[in-house]
TrEMBL record:
It is found in: Membrane. Residues 1-32 form the signal peptide. The chain crosses the membrane at residues 249-270. GO terms for molecular function: signaling receptor binding. Keywords: Disulfide bond, Glycoprotein, Immunoglobulin domain, Membrane, Signal, Transmembrane, Transmembrane helix. Residues 36-134, 135-239 form the Ig-like domain. The gene is LOC103374983. GO terms for cellular component: external side of plasma membrane. Belongs to the SKINT family. The lineage of its organism: Eukaryota, Metazoa, Chordata, Craniata, Vertebrata. This is Butyrophilin subfamily 1 member A1-like. It holds the Pfam family C2-set_3. GO terms for biological process: regulation of cytokine production; regulation of leukocyte cell-cell adhesion; regulation of T cell activation; T cell activation; T cell receptor signaling pathway. PANTHER family: BUTYROPHILIN (PTHR24100), ICOS LIGAND (PTHR24100:SF151).
Length: 291
């Protein structure tokens, strides 16, 4: 009997413990749901070298973050801190040296929960993942920054024949590595050899390619250099002149006229020269007879 009572008491204690744990977990979930979320961008942020860029990060619903500790960091660097805000000012201790003097928060928007990071004079080394963290709330978000450099291609005529032209396209100063395409006047891809790509000491890519095209009417050709990861495209166009039969006929007649005119002039000069020599000879003979 006493054993049954002990078992019943133990069961009640265990049940009470389970109930307490349930309420504890439930209350923890409710309190966690009351904590604002930290929202970052859904897509990669793209910036050009030398530009200024803002990496978005905000508390939702809007919560005053001006008195909170806010951390921006690069998980792939050491030291990894990019910008630390605490006691309503920036703390530069352990800040990554390459970011000194180039980062700031939008202090006039902190009370709205906007803790976005502004980065000025973007460099290639700035590319990578960024972590936005609010330790007090236990919230963090990640932002990926892609840095790019682009340039406009240049087309040159390398050689010509009566029926074809060799064109070369080159574009120097790209990042990331681009691809090069040739298109005809209708936007169709032209068959060309694989482009040559060279990476310089500045980590920028130079891409070039040659193509042989036939001379025909509407000879407009396009060199397109593109980088799909950053959604950037640059183009150059060239029109290869093609003479129509009428123009060729006119030019031929004009050339024939020039040749005939030149021949006529030469013939006239020759006749005048012969006449002049004949007069001199007759004059010389007359003098001899008088003597």
């Amino acid at each position: 009997m006493r054993l049954q009572r002990c078992r019943s008491a133990l069961s009640i204690v265990l049940l009470q413990h389970v109930i307490d744990c349930f309420f504890l977990l439930t209350s923890h979930r409710v309190s966690s749901s009351d904590v604002p979320l930290l929202i970052g961008p859904s897509q990669t942020v793209v910036a050009f070298v030398g530009d200024d860029v803002t990496l978005p990060c905000r508390l939702e619903p809007a919560t005053d973050a001006s008195a909170m500790r806010l951390e921006w960091a690069r998980p792939d660097l050491s030291p990894g801190f990019v910008h630390v805000w605490a006691d309503r000012r920036e703390h530069v201790l352990d800040k990554q040296p390459s970011y000194r003097g180039r980062t700031s928060l939008l202090t006039d928007r902190l009370h709205l929960g906007d803790i976005s990071l502004k980065l000025v004079n973007v460099t290639l080394s700035d590319e990578g993942p960024y972590r936005c963290l609010v330790p007090e709330l236990g919230r963090k978000a990640f932002v990926k920054l892609a840095v790019c450099v682009v340039s406009t291609p240049v087309i040159r005529v390398m050689s010509r024949t009566s029926s074809s032209v060799v064109l070369q396209c080159e574009s120097a100063g790209w990042y990331p590595e681009p691809e090069l395409l040739w298109l005809d006047g209708e936007g169709k891809l032209l068959s060309a050899g694989p482009p040559e790509t060279v990476r310089g000491p500045d980590d920028l890519y130079t891409v070039s390619s040659r193509v042989t095209v036939e001379k025909r009417h509407s000879n407009t050709f396009t060199c397109r250099v593109q980088q799909n990861n950053i959604n950037q495209t640059r183009e150059a166009h060239i029109r290869v002149a093609v003479l129509s039969r009428y123009v060729k006929g006119v030019l031929a007649l004009g050339l024939l006229g020039v040749v005939l005119g030149l021949a006529s002039t030469i013939h006239g000069c020759m006749r005048e020269h012969v006449r002049h020599k004949k007069i001199q000879s007759e004059h010389s003979n007359k003098e001899k007879m008088d003597v």
